[in-house]
């Protein structure tokens, strides 16, 4: 599968190799590279997974890296429903509405 110019993609790049990490970072952190995964719009005419590409992020930055995903999915969520938070939301909304009503009088 190939991505075409303007398509939403994700790239990967190594920012710092293990030997380039700051001296104050923990020992286990020094042993691994500082990596970046970032999404944006493909600027190259066409590319496949594993190709070196340039993208433009939503904020307009141009970044280079290795193409790792084409139209990547969002895999995060906000977890399971928490009943107490829903109750807090309802109580807070009632309080805010009553304050607004009292300000109008």
From TrEMBL:
Name of the protein in question: 2-amino-4-ketopentanoate thiolase
Domain of life assignment: Bacteria
InterPro entries: OrtA
